[in-house]
Design the sequence.
C-alpha cells in the first residue's frame, strides 16, 4: 500500500476530473516542475492507484434516457453455477455494471435503456431469461452524483 | 446528429480511452484529422463530457465497499435535500443516487476494513437526517465495471 501526501491527493483529484491534462499543466497548478509531476504520476500508476481512464459520455444525448439499478437473487443456489450466471449477464450490452454482493440480493446490476419500453424488453428477454435468475427488484435512477471520495 | 462514423469513434474510444487521436484513427480506418474534428464536435455538443482517471481505492487501502440502500421519512418535506446535503460531508461516500422505486437514495461507501466501516456506519451514516430504513449490500467482487454504453 502507498502513502499519499497532500500533493499526491491534489494530483489525484485533478486527474479524476480530467485525465488528459499534461504533467506541465498539472505541475503549474500544484507548484511543481513538469518532471517532478511526471514522476508522481508514474509512482501512482506503478502502485496501481491510477488504474486507467474512463470516457465520460452523456448517456441522454446518445439516446439512453433510462438507467435502472437491479437487485437480483438467484433462484436455485447450489444448482446453478455462479460463473454461468456471471458470464451470461456480463455479455448483455445494456448491462453496464455487475457486482457480486452479500445481503438481500446476490447481484447488483446497472442497466441502461433507450426508454421504459426498451428497458422492459431488456428485462423480459435478457435478464429474466438468465440461468438461475430469481427475484428481481428494479429502481429507476432519477439523479446521480459522483464524489471525489477520501482524497479531498 | 450522430452518424455511424461518430458511433464507431465512440465505440473504439470507449473500449480504450488511452488511445491517441492517431491510434483511434487507425482503428476506425480513417485519418487523425477527421477523427479529431468529430471528437471536437462531440465535445462541443456535450456528447463527450471528458476523460477522467479511474482510482483504484483498494490500492489506497480501501478494501471494503458497501452499497447502502436508504428509505427516507417522506413525511419530512426536506427529507431528500437534508439527507443528501449531509451525506456529501462524509468523505467515504463515493456515489449518491436517487431513485423511483422501493429505494429512495443509494450511497456507495468505501472503508479500509470492517472496524473502519463500522465506525463510519455508526458515527456518520446512522446520524444522517430523516432515515426511515437502511439495507446494506456488501460487495464481494466486481464482475463488470466499465460502464460502457451499448453504441
Sequence:
Amino acid at each position: 500500500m502507498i502513502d499519499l501526501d497532500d500533493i499526491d491527493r491534489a494530483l489525484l483529484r485533478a486527474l479524476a476530473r480530467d485525465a488528459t491534462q499534461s504533467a506541465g499543466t498539472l505541475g503549474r497548478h500544484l507548484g511543481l516542475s513538469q518532471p517532478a509531476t511526471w514522476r508522481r504520476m508514474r509512482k501512482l500508476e506503478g502502485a496501481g492507484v491510477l488504474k486507467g481512464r474512463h470516457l465520460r459520455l452523456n448517456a441522454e444525448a446518445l439516446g439512453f434516457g433510462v438507467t435502472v439499478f437491479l437487485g437480483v437473487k438467484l433462484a436455485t443456489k447450489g444448482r446453478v453455477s455462479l460463473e454461468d450466471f456471471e458470464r451470461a449477464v456480463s455479455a448483455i450490452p445494456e448491462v453496464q455494471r455487475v457486482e457480486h454482493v452479500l445481503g438481500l440480493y446476490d447481484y447488483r446490476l446497472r442497466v441502461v435503456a433507450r426508454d421504459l419500453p426498451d428497458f422492459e424488453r431488456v428485462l423480459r428477454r435478457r435478464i429474466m431469461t438468465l440461468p438461475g435468475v430469481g427475484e428481481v427488484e428494479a429502481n429507476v435512477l432519477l439523479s446521480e452524483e459522483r464524489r471525489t471520495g477520501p482524497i479531498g | 446528429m450522430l452518424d455511424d462514423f461518430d458511433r464507431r469513434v465512440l465505440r473504439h474510444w470507449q473500449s480504450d480511452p488511452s488511445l491517441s487521436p492517431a491510434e483511434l484513427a487507425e482503428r476506425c480506418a480513417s485519418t487523425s484529422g477527421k477523427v479529431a474534428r468529430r471528437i471536437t464536435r462531440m465535445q462541443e455538443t456535450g456528447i463527450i463530457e471528458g476523460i477522467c482517471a479511474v482510482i483504484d481505492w483498494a490500492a489506497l487501502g480501501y478494501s471494503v465497499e458497501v452499497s447502502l440502500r436508504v428509505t427516507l421519512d417522506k413525511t419530512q418535506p426536506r427529507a431528500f435535500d437534508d439527507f443528501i446535503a449531509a451525506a456529501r460531508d462524509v468523505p467515504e461516500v463515493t456515489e449518491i443516487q436517487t431513485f423511483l422505486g422501493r429505494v429512495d437514495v443509494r450511497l456507495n461507501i468505501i472503508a479500509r476494513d470492517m472496524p473502519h466501516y463500522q465506525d463510519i456506519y455508526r458515527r456518520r451514516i446512522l446520524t444522517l437526517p430523516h432515515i426511515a430504513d437502511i439495507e446494506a449490500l456488501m460487495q464481494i467482487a466486481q464482475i463488470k465495471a466499465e460502464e460502457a454504453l451499448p453504441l
In short: Residues 18 and 51 of chain B are 9 Å apart (CA to CA).
